[in-house]
Amino acid sequence: MLFNKAGRWACFFLVGLVLASVARAQPYAYGVAGVGYSGLGLTPSASPIDWGAISLAYDTVIPGANARGLGLERGHNINLTMGVLPGLEINARLATNNLQCNLYGLNGGCPAGSYRDLSGNFKLGHSVQVGQNTWLSAAVGGNDIGGAATFFRSYYAAASVRQPWGALNLGKAIGVSATAPLNGIFGSAAVQLMEPLQVFYERLGQRQWVGARFERPLWQDERVKVSVSAHRALQQDGFTPRQWLSFGLQFHFDTPASAAQKEAARLGASVSAAAPVLRPWVPEMRVLPEAIENGIAVDVAVAAVEPVALIEPVTSIESADVAQSLSKALADAGFESISVGEDHLGPIVQLENYAYNWNQLDALGVAMGVVGAKAAGWPVLRLQILRRGIPVYLATATPDCMIRWLAQFVCDGQSELNLAAGQHARVKTDAVQWWVRNERSSTGRTKFYVYPVIDSRVGSEYGTLDSSWGLVFNWQTPLWKGATSDIAYVKALGHSADYAPGGIFSDFRIDSRLYRVMLHQTADLPWGLSARFAAGRLAQLLDGHHSELRWESPGGDHRLTWEKSHFKHRHVPFLKEFSMASYRHYLEPINSTLELKTGQWWHGDRGQMAILRHWFGDTSVALYVRRSRFAEGAPALFSPYGSVPVMSAGFEIAFPMTPRREVQAQWLQPRGDDRFSYGIQSVIGAATNTNYVTPYFGNYSPVPLSLDHAVYNFDRGSQAYLAAHLQRIRQGWQYFLKQKDMQPEVFKEDQGADPQPLSNR
Fold it and tell me: Which of 268, 293, 518, 716 has its CA 20 to 30 A from that of 723?
């Protein structure tokens, strides 16, 4: 019988069940097993890691590796596991017995039987609730997928029953590699004795282990948890050490809202591709339909009135005073280039946002809150947010309605909030009479960025982690509408031995130098188009230019981009050319994008790339696969594989490394990186049986400030993204303004009455 030697441990778990029955019930949560999947110490669970969770784990056991050499069951085991979709987890694992030695035997060889395996793992599963607090789960997965070193490759299937106090798990695995630890029938049982403490029993073939896991929130934040696990083997055969510890750190990021949550957030607001219906703001006057500018529709009641002449609006002293107060409040909130005026359609407020860089929806929420507090009582106005001279968002409503919507109250029956993004955020301003013009102008107001830069090689045959690092000092100064000067200096801070002069990666060492001097110009074009042109010098030796043309569909689901760079060396006949076309599709239900690229990369190789990017709040996780090929005659340094297609796969994590609202200063505004990214990759199925990813494959043009990043909220400035993230607008207002008691007069009338919050409608 499979578990015939586990009687004493069964008694132990019966006692645990009694204790669990009187403890406070919590859903049982798995950790990350060292072999490269969510589970216990060695066996996988049938439940993938939670959607939107990222877990980093470390332990010193490499099960199965002892078959390659005496005493190699201990080593360094690093796992990064991500729940990228509901029911899908992706894991990157680095397993090695030595962090420093060169597997090629150069400058200090490795002990006999040594290994270094950088691998990808996946698990796909689903859970069904079959009773009160009871779930059945099933999953399939694979280990050590891709790369030339496949010491641990196996495939498995598992099923489990789970309740808040524990779980039972059973599965079968097929080991492909001779040293694959997961092979045959496996099972586990786990009990949560109390909220932070779990105990478990595992069996893999004839081998058995017991352990305990302690997990607690960090800084009393349930989204960040740390854990430590203790494991003990019930046999001494060298498959694993007799006992060892594991450590874990798990982050839970925001996941996309459900359909019900999105509908609740939408109440009181309209997000559509159509222009909002606006009546002219001319007291006691009627206007002809022909007088309406910019294609804005009027309703039947207005169009049917008796024709009269259009009368120019008269600026009132009271409105001008309010405009001055409003512009000052917007400036205090961090906005730039603020203009307030009116035309025959009503008031209009324009501003540029460079202060809220985690997510520009924060800026929209703050601006709506300021307008609602300072301009209460005004008629319907248009609030337009720009970035580098290009419209990003437009909010149309009375200020009273804006602030009510932010606070989740119902607007009155005559008003509704209309939100638009991208090409729908344009406003014609030829006939506007401005009360305030270009307050706190962004022209000449330098943004000073300081952020880290790193070049690294992870899990190569030369070393476990080789890197060169430094700091970038970047000065970006708006000059005129859409124009920005860009100067970047790189300061080297250090490097590992393989990046030293004469080292294998010395050509990629980060050195101190003036890296970039460029001028960028953006332009907003009709029909959903926008463009950018940049010219200047790169790496002190390359002079040239970069062009970009971008189109986005009216709904924001589709985007086409074409980019081209042409740079030549100052002293020798040497060209750098980059030409890339890309298509992106926005997958709204899972807050993800699928992007396809094709063209010529920076170093001359040609190929295609597919990128699946997932957004969890302001953190993105991208999975990609790339196929690239150098032409005949390319330097061997560029492609040691020769002129053959090379497949590689990898992942990238990107997040803001700067305050949620930037430091406000008069002329030099210090800040961090709007989006710092780091990733690793591995070759797939190389014919030469090597895992070396040459750094020359698949590089982008190093010209920064793309339209997606510098203007469109890191490709989140579309109508589709706006419609799916209305609640983020409220969160920005609540975080920056509501806590500061910036409440408008409009709420005074609700004191002592039922305000009818949207949540109760």
Answer: 293
Interatomic CA distance for residues 457 and 509, integer angstroms? 11
DSSP 691-757: ----TTTTPPP-----HHHHTSTTTT-SHHHHHH-HHHHHHHHHHHTGGGT---GGGGGGTTS---B
Dist. CA 539–CA 702, nearest whole Å: 10
Cβ contacts of residue 488 below 8 Å, gap of 6+? 472, 473, 474, 475, 514, 515, 516, 517, 704
pLDDT tens-digit series, residues 435-461: 999 999 999 999 999 999 999 888 877
Closest Cα partner for 726 from 270, 333, 273, 382?
270
Please give the share of the chain, as a percent, with pLDDT higher than 90: 47
Q: Of 504 and 271, which is predicted with more confidence?
A: 504
CA 285 vs. chain centroid, Å, equals: 50
* Amino acid occupying residue 309: A
Cα separation values, 405 from 349, 461, 727, Å: 18, 58, 10
CA nearest neighbour of 484 among 427, 442, 524, 453: 442
Q: How is the chain split into domains, by residue range?
A: 7-102+109-252
Selection from 299-303, 317-321, 568-572 with the highest mean pLDDT: 568-572
CATH numeric code, 7-102+109-252? 2.40.160.40
What is the residue whose two structure tokens read 């940049």? 534
- From start to end of 319-380, where are the E strands? 336-343, 346-352
Euclidean distance between CA atoms 371 and 385, whole angstroms: 13
Q: Are 678 and 713 in contact (CB under 8 A)?
A: no
Rounded Cα–Cα distance for residues 713 and 707 (Å): 9
Question: What tens digit of pLDDT does each residue of 340-384 get?
Answer: 999 888 899 999 999 999 999 999 999 999 999 999 888 899 999
Q: What's the DSSP call for residue 310?
A: -
Q: Which of 339, 411, 398 is nearest to 371 (CA)?
A: 398
Helix (H, G, I), strand (E, B) or coil at 590: helix
Q: HSE on the CB side for 466, CA within 13 Å?
A: 20
How is residue 26 annotated by DSSP? -
Where does the pLDDT of residue 609 fall: very low under 50, low under 70, confident under 90, or very high at 90 and above?
very high
Asked if 244 contacts 59 with a C-beta cutoff of 8 angstroms, the reply is yes
State which H helix or E strand residue 366 sits in: helix 360-374
Give phi and psi for 530, each to the nearest 5: -145, 155
Distance CA 743, CA 373 (A): 6
**Residue among 29, 24, 746 nearest 400 (CA):** 746
Token pair of 33, please? 């097993």
Residue 335: C-alpha distances to residues 389, 400, 437 (Å) = 13, 21, 13
Q: How many Å apart are CA 335 and CA 367, to the nearest integer? A: 8
Give the Cα separation of 524 and 422 in Å (integer).
Answer: 10
Cα angle 262, 528, 271 (rounded to 5 degrees) comes to: 20
pLDDT in the model for residue 489: 96
- Token pair belonging to 59: 């332990």
SS3 state at 521 = strand
What per-residue confidence (pLDDT) applies to 437? 93
Q: Is residue 9 helix, strand or coil?
A: helix
CB 144 within 8 A of CB 151: yes
Q: Which residue has the tokens 């790193």?
A: 454
Instruction: State which H helix or E strand residue 332 sits in.
Output: helix 317-332
Pairwise CA distance, residues 580 & 559, whole Å: 14
